[in-house]
Design a protein that fits this description.
The protein is of the alpha+beta class and 163 residues long. The protein has 6 helices and 8 strands. It has helices at 14-24, 53-74, 78-89, 108-114, 134-138, 146-162, and strands at 2-3, 9-11, 36-41, 48-51, 94-97, 103-105, 119-125, 128-132. It has a 6-stranded antiparallel β-sheet with strand order 1-7-8-4-3-5. Strands 2-6 form a two-stranded antiparallel ribbon.
Length: 163
């Protein structure tokens, strides 16, 4: 749980940074993209879905292979197929960089779609993670598990105690 200021600046939690550094330090991520995150509107939930550099590279590799197969079968231009696949997979896609301290800016349009204002709650999902507005997560049945929502409520209560 981290605060978001009026300009959309927020810090990526340290545990997430460490995981991203390990994943993106494997040599599969192009130099300079280790601190790049791809943010999109989740296709069915009111939150931001985030992929790290390794996930971006793996997804692009899979999409390119799929587009090549479809192009061979249909004769359609591979670039057109890739454009369509990317638009479907990454609605409102934005690439965002974070600095050594994890500071980054959540894109305004994605913040608006996810109704993220004062707080951002980060939820790890294996190869990806999600960023939620706590109020929206509470109001979204099936958005996350009960254990995740309990954790969020505990973090909010601790912040409130500290003032």
């Amino acid at each position: 749980m981290n605060g978001v200021d009026l300009k959309g600046r927020v810090s990526l939690p340290a545990a997430f940074r460490q995981t991203i550094e390990i994943r993106c330090g494997s040599g599969k991520v192009a130099s300079g993209l280790e601190k790049t995150l791809r943010m999109t509107r989740h296709p069915s939930l009111p939150c931001i879905e985030v992929s790290d550099g390794l996930q971006i590279a793996e997804t692009e590799e899979q999409m390119t292979a799929h587009a090549a197969r479809v192009s061979e079968q249909t004769g359609e231009l591979m670039g057109d197929i890739l454009d369509r696949l990317e638009a479907e997979a990454f609605p409102l896609m934005k690439d965002v960089n974070f600095d050594a301290a994890g500071r980054m800016i959540l894109p305004e349009r994605l913040r608006s779609k996810a109704s993220i204002t004062g707080d951002a709650f980060f939820v790890g999902r294996g190869r990806r993670f999600r960023i939620w507005s706590p109020d929206i997560l509470r109001a979204t049945p099936g958005g996350e598990s009960e254990e995740v929502i309990e954790e969020m409520e505990e973090l909010l209560a601790k912040r409130k105690e500290r003032g």
